[in-house]
């Protein structure tokens, strides 16, 4: 009758601690080019979110959304948890994430600079820097992941 309570009160078995190893952070990924790009995107997105919060709060939702999406991709790649979802085309999803972020931040950055406030101008400058980082990330994804897969499909 109280089996759920009994399980909660008992100390965990030795095998359950091994289940937490699936979320171990791969430190070599964090120091790789892709890890550094994701960390840079995350930091710049957070800075832009702070700038939009200080000046034009109508645009902060776009920066916050991209922050959480980039954080999710960083978590999935750093823990290599994305390998459990083998049906998803991760390079294509990552490429689309970068392209959508470029479009969103270009539009929001140029719309924000029209307000002529100090924080909005800072958000514009950081937005242009972030767009260049996202473009570089999209280019590297296309160059290393998408083009080799297309040429392999042609040979078969």
From TrEMBL:
The keyword Transmembrane applies. GO terms for biological process: negative regulation of myoblast differentiation. The keyword Acyltransferase does not apply. It is found in: Membrane. Keywords: Membrane, Transmembrane, Transmembrane helix. Pfam families: MARVEL. GO terms for cellular component: membrane. It comes from the Eukaryota. The chain crosses the membrane at residues 67-83, 95-113, 119-139. InterPro entries: Marvel, MARVEL-CKLF_proteins. This is CKLF like MARVEL transmembrane domain containing 5. It comes from Chinchilla lanigera (Long-tailed chinchilla). The gene is CMTM5.
């Amino acid at each position: 009758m109280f089996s759920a309570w009994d399980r909660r009160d008992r100390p965990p078995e030795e095998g359950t601690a091994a289940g937490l190893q699936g979320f171990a952070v791969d430190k070599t990924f964090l120091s790789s080019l892709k890890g550094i790009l994701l960390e840079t995107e995350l930091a710049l997105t957070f800075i832009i979110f702070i700038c939009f919060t200080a000046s034009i709060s109508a645009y902060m939702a776009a920066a916050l959304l991209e922050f959480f999406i980039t954080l999710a991709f960083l978590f999935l790649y750093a823990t290599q948890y994305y390998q459990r979802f083998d049906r998803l085309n991760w390079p294509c999803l990552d490429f689309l994430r970068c392209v959508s972020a470029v479009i969103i931040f270009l539009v929001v950055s140029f719309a924000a600079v029209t307000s002529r406030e100090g924080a909005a101008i800072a958000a514009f400058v950081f937005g242009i820097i972030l767009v260049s980082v996202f473009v570089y990330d999209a280019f590297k994804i296309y160059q290393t992941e998408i083009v080799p897969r297309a040429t392999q499909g042609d040979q078969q």
